Input
Amino acid sequence: MIKTILARLKQKHRTMKYPDELPVLPELFRGYPRFEPQKCLDGCNRCVEACPYGAIELLAQGSRPRENRISIDMGLCIFCNECALACPGGAISFSNEYQLATGERDELVAVADQGHKRAGALEEKRLKLFSRSLKLREVSAGGCNACEADTNVLNTVGFDLGRFGIQFVASPRHADGIFVTGPVSENMREALLKTWEAIPEPKIAIVCGACAIGGGPFRGSPEVNDGACDLIPVDLYIPGCPPHPLTILDGLLRLLGKI
Output
């Protein structure tokens, strides 16, 4: 017992103070994409060619190629950095902005010279019900387990998700909403829909990761549904491959009006 007390005193309080204090992010963290169109080279299309999943487009805005604007669909992007490495002019980079979650699918498309609309709170009725206590049923619908692993991190002492009243439960009958990861394989499609149906109204739906939003690396395969967005009404989109635990936490807290 004495050793335990001494270890506790040495370690001090290990739960981060987010959102009251800003987090310290790793040096290699890749967040919201940044663009400098003036650095684009005439006729260059290397970023589009380098993207493995078609997340990048050049949007013509003027008569000269250099006036084109770059768009990155974060719902498809896996944040691999290949576009930035391929760009000879250094027009693309990834910032340390981790607040990526949004309530609208279209807002995941990042365009040069346009701001990013972050997730907002639920409407008054559901916010009143869930702001102090939110129970989620997680459905891993054929993913690689990366999104699930980073979500599980939120239950550790470092994040302590329960202090915000958010918990993951074993039964959809005990849940207020669904938390979906994975591209929704054909073998998981019915299970996902039955889980959604079993959650009592009113309920919420959250999709986490590039796979759950648009199929991710599995996009276009006949064995997957390219995500859950056309199967259930989504309230929160959390992009990433996988999303950083802070990105997930930030989205959840914004949905509940705590940020």
The two ends are 39 Å apart (CA to CA).
